[in-house]
Design goal:
Length: 238
């Protein structure tokens, strides 16, 4: 069964990705596509940018069953970023980020999509406060509202969006994870997609990934391997 149109939000970096049902976001998948990057609006740091690009998720972290396709950032991503930041009670991302890198979109089968991002911010305190906001009581309603808004841009039919906090990757103290359950009706048939959103910090680095599949959630072992691969590539004193 092919993927339905879902916009997966990566937080705190915030970015959005849209991959229509089964359609390839690029003409030809490559063995490993270089990570996309976005130059931050304030206080860019070249060393941070290099570190973010070096750490972000790669095809080898997931395995040979995946294909890497270029990620094209939505023109509404900045708007969504601002809406979410305000909802969570945090400053706008551009105020404190020094670097940002996105992975390719990694696709497996008809419905599995994985997308990741690494952001550096101006201090460890900022990174800790961003994560704390995602762990707080505002997070679930803010995230649910954002994803529902993103979906409504694409479809006018019935849809249901639920979000719950899930047990995060083990052996990580500074991490939070949520699972979105999205049900839409396609040609009279209900289709369920699961999106796991995992956010972790290490020093000034914020690492995020979304794992999306149809009918079943992505295996925990895949999520753990991906997150640890990125975190372990960060500089020792990030």
């Amino acid at each position: 069964m092919k993927a339905i149109p879902v916009l997966a939000a990566l937080l705190v970096a915030v970015t959005t990705a849209c991959v229509p049902g089964g359609a390839s976001p690029s003409p030809r998948p490559s063995a490993d596509v270089s990570p996309a990057t976005t130059r931050p609006a304030a206080s860019p740091d070249e060393e941070d940018q290099k570190a973010a690009q070096a750490a972000v998720l790669r095809l080898k972290d997931l395995g040979s069953s995946y294909e890497g396709r270029p990620y094209l950032r939505s023109r509404l991503a900045t708007q969504d970023d601002e809406v979410l930041s305000r909802c969570l009670g945090r400053p706008l991302t551009s105020v404190h980020e020094t670097a940002r890198a996105f992975s390719s979109i990694f696709v497996s089968g008809d419905g599995r999509l994985v997308l990741a991002g690494v952001t550096f911010v101006d201090s460890r305190e900022t990174a800790a406060a961003d994560l704390q906001a995602l762990q707080g009581p505002r997070a679930m309603p803010c995230l649910r509202r954002l994803l529902t808004t993103q979906l409504r841009r694409q479809r006018s039919g019935p849809l249901a969006v639920e979000v719950e906090r899930i047990r995060p990757v083990p052996d990580l103290a500074q991490v939070v994870a949520y699972r979105f359950t999205v049900v839409v009706n396609e040609d009279g048939q209900d289709i369920t997609q699961f999106i796991d959103l995992i956010s972790a910090t290490r020093g000034r680095a914020e690492v995020q990934a979304s794992f999306q599949d149809v009918n079943v959630a992505v295996e925990r072992a895949v999520e753990e391997r991906a997150m640890l691969a990125m975190l372990n590539r960060l500089p020792a004193r990030s």
